[in-house]
Amino acid sequence: MKKIVTLLLFFITITIVSQQKVLKELTLTASDKLIEIETLGLDDVVIETSKNNTLQVLLIDENAIPLNVDVKKVNNTIQLSFKKIEGAFQKEIFRKYITKRLERARVLLKIPINKDLVVYGRTIGVKSKSYKGNLEVYIEKGNVYLGKIYNETSVKLFLGNVFANVDKNVSLSLKTRKGKIMIDDKEIAKKPYKKTTKGAKKLTFDSVNANIFITTK
Question: Among residues 133, 164, 199, which one ends one of the domains?
């Protein structure tokens, strides 16, 4: 019993130690139009619209080896990436007992309105809380939740699911080779599917195996 209690305390200690939050903020100017995020090392990205001109990057990290937020400004492009901190303390016993359940990192982005955001990644979950700017997502695998479409939105992935809410003013260009195109719970037999409107809102979806679920109600 004593060994069990000791082991439980050890796991609790690891959990507390391995959790960290890193917040970085950057005030954007009118010329800072494009934000690029490389999601390698992350499990999830959540995108919100900021109420001011400040770009906020909140990293919630539960990795044994913590990540750092790397922010670069190249011309008028803000580049975000996440790298393991060199020299971070890690004992052999950590590698023995830490489970995959604890090796997680997610990021909350708050982005000023009408900025262009591009997300790159491999296996990643992306959730846009109806971001009010142009959004492009290029990943290999994952689930993408777009919320309500306000501007030009484009998603390209190999495998996964995409969910979006659109109104009658959103143009649609939906293409998947082996996946399903569902609009209001009805499968579209003819692929690719296109609908053109006069508005500036547009949703583009391109995939081999992924499914897309559109809600218009």
Answer: 133
The Cα diameter of the chain in Å comes to 70
Q: Which residues pair with 72 in a beta bridge?
A: 79
* pLDDT single digits (tens) 99-133: 444 458 999 999 999 899 999 999 999 999 999 99
Give the residue from 159, 154, 167, 166 showing the smallest Cα distance to 211.
159
Are 54 and 35 within 8 A, CB to CB?
no
Backbone angles phi, psi at 39, to 5 degrees: -95, 10
Burial group, residue 157, by CB count within 10 angstroms (0-12, 13-18, 19+): buried
- Domain range for 206 is 135-217
In this prediction the pTM is 0.84
On whether both 99 and 151 belong to a single domain, the answer is no
Same domain, residue pair 125 and 150: no
